[in-house]
Amino acid sequence: MILTLTPNPSIDRTVELAGTLARGEVQRVTSVVSQGGGKGVNISRAAVTAGVASIAVLPADRDDPFVHELLSAGIDCRPARPAGEIRVNIAITEPDGTTTKLNSPGATVTAEHLEALSRTLLQRAHSASWVVLAGSLPPGAPDDYYAGLVAQLRGTHARVAVDTSEGPLSALVDALPASAPDLMKPNGEELSSFTGGDPVVLESDPLAAAAAARTLVDRGVAAVLATLGAHGAVLVTAEGAWHATPPPTTVVSTVGAGDSSLFGYVLGDLRGLPPAERLALAVAYGSAAAGLPGTTIPEPEQVRPELVAVEPLDVEMSYR
Question: What pLDDT sits at residue 33?
């Protein structure tokens, strides 16, 4: 079972444009799609689609339409006491797949709200194979909230994945190795935030990205899945490093592609696949999601890991 935590869930509203986004102009919209989301929610949605048991923990009223939407989609949802209404995030997608995101901050939480959320998660962690802590933190939450949860989850048998950015990511890295999860999923920009590297170089150079990811493995993180957009992804573990090149994909929307990649890796682990095959499945899931509108989660038959090319990387050489 995959247990997910989304501390700052959102109603994801995707606006598809007929042409290129032009500031200050009136433009024609092709479609508008709204869906309950947030990184953890997206991963639970992917799990249900693939026939894997999942529970989504998030702050919301039990009678909130957001919760009812998830339940109607077959997602086992365990809400904790919220601080306010669920935020709305807007993604504007252009015909070439370029996506502009407008993310709301969310309701301001107190220590009591966070304690209720943590308690709801920890009560179910003992029955999970993986616990995924994902997304931004709401206003009022300390940056080290995820780092503290990782330490608490070490008392369970569950493996822990973290996918976050900015302050929460920095706090997690600063607390290593005490806060080291089993999996981290940064992108090139997030890798650069704590390595000091050039985000453009890290996004386009798999060897440079793997070398940056290796610094996390050296500090106790079991595996780092670094997603690099059109350049695929790299996986670094104590066993080695690999780069996966995605199959040709017509990008429709990148919203949720990283979440699908993370799920693909976790699914590969649950299936007992070796690291290179876990990486291939992760990239296949991310590519399939990028070819779908909005935050649409790919169906298993749309995921083609056999089309993903994986090659080993000599990260040690990059240090010399």
Answer: 85
